[in-house]
Every structure is written in C-alpha cells, then in structure tokens.
Amino acid sequence: MPDSFEVSTVLTASVKQVYEAWLSSIEHSTMTGGAARIDATVGGQFSAWDGYISGTTLELEPYRRIVQSWRTIEFPVDAPDSRLEILLEESAAGTHLTLKHSNIPVGQGSGYESGWVENYFDPMRDYFSE
Predict the structure, then answer these.
(1) What pTM value is reported for the model?
(2) Are 63 and 52 in contact (CB under 8 A)?
(3) Domain ranges of the chain
(4) How does pLDDT run across 89-123, given as a tens digit for each residue?
(5) CA atoms of 47 and 21, how far apart (whole Å)
(6) Cα 117 from chain centroid (whole Å)
(7) Mind spelling out the 3-state secondary structure of the chain?
C-alpha cells in the first residue's frame, strides 16, 4: 500500500500571498532556495528544486486549494505520480497551510514528510516573516 501523510504549518502571510507564491516560478524559487518553473494553470506542468520535483497542476481553487500530481527523480520509473493537496485557511496569525501527500512509493513517505518541513515549511516561515 502506498505511503501517505499530512503535515501543517502556520505562516505569517495572507492566504492570497501564500497561494500566489506557491504558483509563481520566481516566488517559489525565492522562498525555497531551489529553482522552480511553474505554469500556474490547471493542466500546467511544474518543476521545483532544480528539477528534482516535477508534476502537473490538477485542480485550483483560488486562495483555498491546490492539487498537483507530484514526483521526484527518486521515484521508481514505473511508479505512478503521487498526489499533493495543499489547503489554505485564514488563521489569526495569517495562513494555516495543510499539506496532504498520498500515493507515495512504499518506504519513501517518511523522507518526504521531513523534506516538506525542512525544505518548504521552514524556509516559507522565514520568507513570509521578512
């Protein structure tokens, strides 16, 4: 059975700022420190972390939800893409971001779970607190 997990964080930014930064090649690159190229449309392709991550945007609910197919160069060649769902909710401090990652190749989930915190949530907190 594929791996899955859910992680959350609070960012000191509006849901609009977080949503737009996630889907902007320039801001995504700046907030994570790895080069990103993003076509911010449903069906649009993206890559992040200098090509380590790639996928397709499947659904967009502006300022609320982003759903993407997602894979890294570490996925087995025959493995299907995983599914990434980003949920944004207003909170007293700014934005509560919940990330649901599912259909990850067996045994890889824990590495990606810590990777989201270290390579996304921590840098995003710094980026939005500046």
Answers:
(1) 0.95
(2) no
(3) 3-129
(4) 999 999 999 999 999 999 999 999 999 999 999 99
(5) 14
(6) 11
(7) CCEEEEEEEEECCCHHHHHHHHCCHHHHHHHHCCCCEECCCCCCEEEECCCCEEEEEEEEECCCEEEEEEEECCCCCCCCCEEEEEEEEEECCEEEEEEEEEEECCCCHHHHHHHHHHHHHHHHHHHHHC
Angle, in degrees to the nearest 10, between helices 25-32 and 122-129: 110
**Structure tokens, 118:** 């270290």
CATH class entry, domain 3-129:
alpha beta
**Cα–Cα separations (whole angstroms), residue 42 to 21, 39, 50, 63, 101:** 16, 8, 22, 14, 19
